[in-house]
Amino acid sequence: MLLGTKDTWGYMKIAITGAGTVSPIGSNCTEFFEAITSDATGVRSAPWAEPHAVRPPLFAAVDARFDPLRVLDERLLEGCDTFVAFGISACDEALMQAGLRDGSSSGLDPLRTAIVDGTSMGGHYTLMRAQWALETRGPDAVDPKTMMKIWANMTAAQLSMRYGLHGPSLTVSTACASSLDAIGQAAGMIRSGSVDVALCGGTEGGFPSDRPDIDGFVPVTSIAGARLGMESPERDPRLAMLPFDVRRSGIVFGEGAAWLVLESEEHARGRGARPLAWLRGYGSCADGHHPSSPEPTGRWESRAMRLALEDAAVGPTDMDVVVAHATGTPKGDSAEILAINDVLGDAAPLVTSVKGHTAHTGAASGAMSAIAAIAAMRSGQLNHTAGTTEVDPDAGFEVVTSAPRAVDARFAQINAFGFGGQNSSVVLSRGD
After folding, report:
1. SS3 at position 154
2. Where would I find the H helices in 193-329?
3. C-alpha span between 374 and 202 (Å, rounded)
4. Which domains occur in the chain, in start order?
5. Which residues are CB-contacts of 270 (< 8 A; sequence separation ≥ 6)?
6. How far apart are CA 237 and CA 228, in angstroms?
């Protein structure tokens, strides 16, 4: 296992002391929690959707209240894809909550702090828009900063510059598992003793839906997703994203960011920080099956879940809550249902997903689910799975539907599974 077993490293808890997010339903953690414990959804018609089309593509845009100029000055924003602004905003919030940033000053050791970002497509909107500009308006219309804006590592790079950090700065790209894998890689650095603090999470998207210079631009990824059959054909936004529902028909693309501050237990205790939660275990493995479809029995997703439990030195009956990947695709949900049945079915945890609220935020989705799990353990209220009313009868567990559920959760497991058979799972426990 990446983080080692008890025989390798010995049992160790890693403190989660800060969290931040930008999502389709809220531009910070407070707004996010209020939205997932109501019936809010960020799913709506895409800015480029034809209003009278038979199958208009749907899109979960970032909350309209998000203003990238709140975190980046205009000159810096001109050199960044919006996905970078998402990551900076979420990481700033996490550091503020952790008590490691106050205004422009930072309490981070520049040599003992790591940054690990997860993204699947980086500045892909910038690249698509640049190609569109070239083809429609010619070479002079291409943004001269295009090359600087498209690289996937730019969120981590900008955070290093923003906070004056010179420790490891890495970017993980494992499709929709990226942010959980970023958390796992960051935790490994802390456990190895190479760093004391790690800023980690995921960033995705960046379509500038409020900008005037997009008239006529349609991102090819939207068309390609529909052509592949992965996008929901539903016209009603409330029915377009139905995790674990028998009526599920595909995903809706979302965007945003979710970031955590991880610290060694010694470092957190030494500065008097009170953890929001503890990162207890991480598991990762590959399906080795198909580029876009999971191995249908879910056995490798089961393995990732079991590795996380083993790494945490806990058993299935310890799990009170599962925040599932649950994308709302027929094949994807079926495989995860079998995996949860296999690993946790007899333990009867409460299972939920945030994707009915947020849509599928890609690389950011795993860390966003982790924030939902932390909120449930701290507040005693677990979000319901928005939109889902007819749970797949194959599920041998209870899916929270209709309304949030009161919980007394000590442990939570979070899953994230991505294209290419990227399987990741983490186990958290309640903070002090």
Report:
1. helix
2. 220-228, 265-270, 299-312
3. 17
4. 14-270 (3.40.47.10), 280-430 (3.40.47.10)
5. none
6. 20
Question: How would you write the pLDDT of the chain (432 residues) with one tens digit per residue?
Answer: 333 333 343 456 899 999 999 999 999 999 999 999 998 999 988 777 765 565 667 777 788 788 888 888 888 888 999 999 999 999 999 999 999 998 666 789 999 999 999 999 999 989 998 999 999 999 999 999 999 999 999 999 999 999 999 999 999 999 999 999 999 999 999 999 999 999 999 999 887 555 545 567 888 888 788 778 787 888 788 889 999 999 999 989 999 999 999 999 999 999 999 999 999 999 999 999 999 899 999 999 999 999 999 999 999 999 999 999 999 999 999 999 999 999 998 999 999 999 999 999 999 999 999 999 999 999 999 999 999 999 999 999 999 999 999 999 999 999 999 999 999 999 999 997
Q: Which of 109, 116, 92 is nearest to 187 (CA)?
A: 116
Task: Give me the DSSP letters along 77-100.
Answer: HTTS-HHHHHHHHHHHHHHHHHT-
Please give the model's pTM, rounded to 2 decimal places: 0.94
* Dihedral sign computed on CA atoms, order 105, 170, 67, 35: negative
120: DSSP letter: S
Q: State the catalytic residues.
A: 176, 325, 360
Question: Does an H or E element contain 1, and which?
Answer: none
d(C-alpha 411, C-alpha 325), whole Å: 17
| Amino acid making up residue 385 | T
- Does residue 151 sit in helix, strand or coil? coil
Query: Rounded to a whole number, what is the distance in angstroms from the first to the last CA of the chain?
Result: 27
- Rounded Cα distance between 91 and 106, Å, is 12
Calpha distance 75→60 (Å, rounded): 27
125-130-135-138 Cα dihedral, nearest 10 degrees: 160
Tracing tokens 């936004």 back to the chain, one arrives at 237
Give the Cβ contact number of residue 216 at 10 Å. Answer: 8
